Amino acid sequence: MVQFVCRPTSGFDPASEIKVAKALESLDDEWTIIHSVAWQGRRGKRQGDGEADFVLLSKSVGAIILEVKGGGVFLESGRWMSEDRHGDMYPIKDPFVQATASKVALHKWLSDTLSLDVPTMHAVAFPDVSMPPNLGPAGRPEIVIDRSGLTDITGRVEKIVSHWNLSCSLGAKEMKRIVNALAPTVAVRRTLADDTYDAEHALVRLTDEQRRAFSGLRRARRAAVFGGPGTGKTLLASEKAAQLADEGHKTLLVCYNALLAQALARSEVLKDVRVSTYHSLCFSELKRAGPAIPTPVPEAWWEHDAPLSLIEACGVSKENYDAIVVDEGQDFSADWLQSLVAILSDGVASPFYVFADADQKLWSRNWEPEPDWFPYELTINCRNTEPIASRVRAVVRKDGSSLGASGPTPKWSQKDKSADVPDFVCNLVARLIEDGFEASDIAVLCEDAVIARELAQKSVGSAVFCQFGGKGVVAETIARFKGLDAPAVVLVLKDGNLEPDRDAYVGFSRARSYLHVVGPTARQRPTHWNDS
Known about the structure:
Layout: E1 3-6, H1 15-24, E2 31-43, E3 46-58, E4 62-68, E5 72-76, E6 79-83, E7 89-91, H2 95-114, E8 120-126, E9 144-146, H3 153-164, H4 172-182, E10 187-191, E11 201-205, H5 208-219, E12 222-227, H6 233-246, E13 251-255, H7 258-265, E14 274-277, H8 278-289, H9 299-317, E15 323-326, H10 334-342, E16 352-356, E17 374-378, E18 380-381, H11 386-396, E19 401-402, E20 411-414, H12 421-434, E21 442-446, H13 449-455, E22 459-460, E23 463-466, E24 473-477, H14 478-481, E25 486-492, H15 502-509, E26 511-519, H16 524-527
Parallel strand pairs: 1-2, 4-8, 8-9, 12-16, 12-17, 13-14, 13-15, 15-16, 18-19, 20-26, 21-24, 21-25, 23-24, 25-26
Antiparallel strand pairs: 2-3, 3-4, 5-6, 6-7, 10-11, 22-23
Helix pairs in contact: 8-9, 9-10, 11-15
């Protein structure tokens, strides 16, 4: 039976492509089918890219690029026309020219990227019409699949292969490399808890929603991806940056949070990507280029002077990037993002992607994506257990869904006096360790930095409290830990009544499987704790 790595989805992809996919299901296990493939790379000093509706892969044949044209399609005096559902006619690109260009581009891309010489051929499918035999010199009948051809897709594919008369002998490892390059599988490990703690780790593959987002990002050079906590933004941002680097781009991944940047910089996936916070990027480039940095650095300098200073410094040092990915985009100002665009090597032709969650804005910077950017919304939480995910959604009164992993019900311990909190937290952490949690699985996140510093001086049995990156129970502020997560989170809130409660929103979502809130009862109202 044919293997589909990725297939079109009803309500998202054109009906014509769904119809073709249905027909391709009858091919045998010689074939691997990938839907909606796009690639980007460097050709010398220029950007290069390509896309295909379907790529059919075979160990003994190579690759077939299949371009799909749905609806009424006509060839009049050498010009290709299409008829929409209202009966209006409009010109379209020659599908055979498109398929040929994609074939040449994919063959070169596989050679440049994987050092593989994969025989590559092309064909065009017209699933909604019966095409005449004479489609011009480029439209040979042997490489056309029309409505009637869908009923004998095996025979039509055999004719395509016979027409091009190409063959190869790809091994299983080579096929896997090709499939992984064209349709990468993004996976993340998370810990699931039962009533106490389940130490088993489950490999949770991303949902179809995230796969479609990743596919869409391969087609668009400028995009803004929005999503709530746990929807895979940082994971997708990292994978996108790694993919761009693999394709030959000099790539920069920028975020706001220093601890997140430290964690990403240690990732083997990003070994060929420069990872930096925006602040560190400015400091390093200004230091290299020579402009003076004010000491101490006032907040106003970051908001107004830093972006221009970065552009000027990179102009002096000639430092630029082929592609830039921004995570935590909600914490960036429009000027910061424009300064990053300015240090791209090919301007608007260079890939530039921003991942953001408007509800996690802890700073008052009113950035909005450009109107011509490809927009994408992630809605499925694939990190938090459902009991925690529902608490996160309740804070901002938003609908959504999760992968449905079960877990313990989040708890709230009332503490109105901050002086009582450190000892209470120590006792709570001790109970969690007794229940089976490892010290390294626990993070205590504090809204008040004073409490975090006080905890850093304490220990629980043989376990000590430490900052992120140390060995022990992490004790950090909510703001510093944003973008990271832990299996178990003890969240320490202080008195306050702001809506939406962004600190609680961020803090709740850091917990993957266990959440225990310590704070005044009055804080339950802005978090809608009793409403969910």
